[in-house]
Amino acid sequence: MGDAARTKALQSARKAQAEYDKALDKARTTRRTSFERAQAAGSSLREIGEAVGLHWTTVREIIKGK
């Protein structure tokens, strides 16, 4: 592979990684917000965990933003 092709491939990889990171950050924010809404509506951490298939302590950590 030539230098120009390698450079282009690396730029493409960096762009793809940046897009992935942005999408993942958005998904994490959306998940945390919806868990917070469920809790504010009266659901317990255990109920939220059961609904989404996570342990309640994981739900707690997500809500805390960790």
Question: Would you give an account of this structure?
Answer:
The chain has 66 residues and is mostly helical. It is built from three helices and no strands. It has helices at residues 3-40, 45-52, 56-64. Helix 1 crosses helix 3 and helix 2 (45-52) packs across helix 3 (56-64). The radius of gyration is 19 Å and the shape is rod-shaped. The N and C termini lie far apart (42 Å). The mean pLDDT is 96.
SSE arrangement:
Layout: H1 3-40, H2 45-52, H3 56-64
Order of helices and strands: HHH
- N→C terminal distance: 42 Å
Count of DSSP-assigned helices: 3
Low-confidence stretches: none
- Estimated share of beta-strand residues: under 5%
Radius of gyration: 19 Å
Instruction: Work out the number of β strands.
Output: 0
Q: Please identify the structural class as seen in this structure.
A: mainly alpha
**Helix residue percentage:** over 70%
Mean pLDDT: 96
Principal-axis shape equals rod-shaped
Q: What's the main sheet like? A: none
List keywords for this structure.
single chain, 3 helices, mainly alpha, 66 residues
In brief:
It is built from 3 helices and no strands. The chain is mainly alpha-helical.
